[in-house]
Amino acid sequence: MSSATPLVGVLALQGGFEAHEKVLRRLGASTRQVRVPADLDGLDALVLPGGESTVMTLGIEREGLAEPLRSFAAGGAPVLGTCAGMIMLDRVHLGVLDVLAERNAFGRQLHSFEADFEVEGVDGGPVHAIFIRAPWIAQHGGDVAVLAQVDGHPVAIRQGNIVALSFHPELTGEDRLHRFFLGLLSE
Ligand code: GLN
């Protein structure tokens, strides 16, 4: 981490923001719940949590957060989107990532499952991941690095300062993805 105590915002309109805050604080960061554009001021990094992308989209519109979120990401600070947060970052939502996320991609019958796999850039063996009605990346541009796949579909990607995950590292006691994310602060 670059500064002693980075301040990480967690979009808190809806969804699993508190679990992210717990992991980030455990790793030595300060956190701030982001609900309105002014909450983005002075943040070192930002997390968009899982939840329900349709509800999150409405909240972002209601609070006038779309443009402020886009400028924050364009400013180069690390941004992490998990599950619905990944969907929010894609071409048809905030348009921050050059990817198309497919909602509920693993099928209705398989709402939730767990899997272990290697994630590029994350040392220490396979990551244990929980998927909950998860998206995958259906299309991506040339600037997007695929860090992990499940059944041939990207479930972890990086484009510059932005990382998006189909799964929920905040729910498994697995700190390595958040460490990887905070590590972007010193790149
Ligand atoms: N299925 C949800 C959506 O489409 C995402 C699920 C999640 O974030 N766990 O928004």
Quick overview:
With about 190 residues, the chain is an alpha/beta fold. It is built from 5 helices and 11 strands; from the N terminus they run βαββααβαβββββββα. The protein has helices at about 15-25, 55-60, 65-75, 85-90, 175-185, and strands at about 5-10, 30-35, 45-50, 80, 100, 110-115, 125-130, 135-140, 145-150, 155-160, 160-165.
- Overall outline: globular
User: Can you summarize the main beta sheet?
Assistant: 7 strands, mixed
Classify the beta-strand content into a percent band.
25-35%
Low-pLDDT ranges: none
Order of helices and strands: EHEEHHEHEEEEEEEH
Structural class: alpha/beta
Question: Which molecules are bound besides the chains?
Answer: glutamine
| Fraction in helix | 10-25%
Q: Count the E strands.
A: 11
Order of the strands making up the biggest sheet: 2-1-3-4-11-10-9
Radius of gyration: 15 Å
Q: What do you see in this structure?
A:
It contains five helices and eleven strands, in the order βαββααβαβββββββα. The model has no long low-confidence stretch (mean pLDDT 96). The strands form three sheets. The chain has a seven-stranded mixed sheet. The protein is an alpha/beta fold. The protein is globular and about 40 Å long. It is 23% helix and 30% strand. The N and C termini lie close together (9 Å).
